[in-house]
Amino acid sequence: MIRFEDTTVSFIRDGKDFIAVDKVNLEIKKGEFFGIVGSSGAGKSTLVRTVNLLQKPTSGKVFVDGKDVTDLTGNDLSALRLKIGMIFQHFNLVKNATVFDNVAFALKASNTPKAEIEGRVLELLDLVGLKDRAHVYPNSLSGGQKQRVAIARALANNPEILLCDEATSALDPDNTKEVVQTLKNIKSKYPITVLFITHQMEVAKSLFDRVAVMSQGKVVEVNSCYDVFAHPESQAARNLINKSFEGVIPKEVIEHEQNLYLITFKEENAYDPVISYVSRNYPLVDLSIIAGNIEYIQQKPLGRLLISLRGTDEGDINSALEYLKQKAFVHKFDREVIANA
Ligand SMILES: Nc1ncnc2c1ncn2[C@@H]1O[C@H](COP(=O)(O)OP(=O)(O)OP(=O)(O)O)[C@@H](O)[C@H]1O
Ligand SMILES: [Mg+2]
């Protein structure tokens, strides 16, 4: 549905070439809920903006529905943009227009017959649960409701693709849940392809089928959402996962502990008694559990424990670690990432 082929975007910065997106190769299938995660400045927005040519690639190509769109202009570009809806972090609603009119604008812009507009707007507002707010102004809505209006507007012309750039990042947890639920709802009713950028791993977990991790303009990892959380291969993915513990565990604890490891158990091992095995077999190693949970990602259980390993014998600590690595995915919990978050 969307294919990036060596897609590259560079900007001139301080008189020098700066590569914001670096030879990205990636294919997003029709109907997928596809996520792009990465830290600030990784190039996520710039990459996604090449899909509807808000940003033209400097080199490489972008395909939509098998068609090379890289050089489209004029009417062809307008036709492409009609197929692609987009929502943003700050909603971009017209303040002095009602909710109804905000959605109606998109239909007028595509020359929808006047007689069809009212019915279609109400249908869209119903889809996002805001039919009863049609005649209020955006200022009287919560952030989540504003974003739902923006979603209705983005879907007005039945796009095949919805691009979402940090659509939940300006919202509090309750409003985030509301928008996430709206998107899930839409996805279950329509076979739309969604490309969603976020740095919030909580959002990633609950929405995506597959995820691409970006770092310094490159895609450094692509996998199913479950597998990215179960065994993050790239440092960028590990950093994002580690960072998601920020606020869950007091900073003081993290700063105080030396040897912190995050242990991730996949489905079949989620309930293994590995901790008691370690304490029995490595009596010189002190293993403390700092945090732990089992959660469901893509309907599959994933267990995680944040542990600290202490002891006087480095060899014993390493053996205990080796044992844990046979049973689960283990990565060092980098305190720097949290401390600087
Ligand atoms: N128009 C531009 N001119 C110059 N540099 C730009 C431009 N747009 C983006 N950049 C730079 O390209 C890099 C990637 O930016 P981009 O906005 O794609 O990152 P991002 O991953 O979306 O980050 P964030 O999470 O903060 O939104 C950044 O270093 C940014 O400063
Ligand atoms: Mg961005």
Task: Explain what the structure shows.
It is a single chain. The chain has 13 helices and 14 strands. The chain has 2 domains: 2-231, 3-Layer(aba) Sandwich (Rossmann fold), CATH 3.40.50.300; 245-339, 2-Layer Sandwich (Alpha-Beta Plaits). It has 341 residues and is of the alpha/beta class. Helix 5 (143-154) runs parallel beside helix 6. The protein is elongated and about 80 Å long. Bound molecules: adenosine-5'-triphosphate (ATP) and magnesium ion. Adenosine-5'-triphosphate is lined by residues 11, 13, 20, 38, 40-46, 199.
Features:
single chain, 13 helices, four-stranded antiparallel sheet, binds adenosine-5'-triphosphate, Rossmann fold, binds magnesium ion, alpha/beta, 341 residues, Alpha-Beta Plaits
Write the layout of secondary structure elements.
Blueprint: E1 2-13, E2 16-28, E3 33-37, H1 44-49, E4 59-64, E5 67-68, H2 74-82, E6 84-87, H3 99-109, H4 114-127, H5 143-154, E7 161-165, H6 173-189, E8 193-198, H7 201-207, E9 210-215, E10 218-224, H8 225-230, H9 235-243, H10 251-256, E11 260-265, H11 274-281, E12 285-297, E13 300-311, H12 314-327, E14 329-332, H13 335-339
Parallel strand pairs: 3-8, 3-9, 6-7, 7-8
Antiparallel strand pairs: 1-2, 1-4, 4-5, 9-10, 11-13, 11-14, 12-13
This protein binds adenosine-5'-triphosphate and magnesium ion.
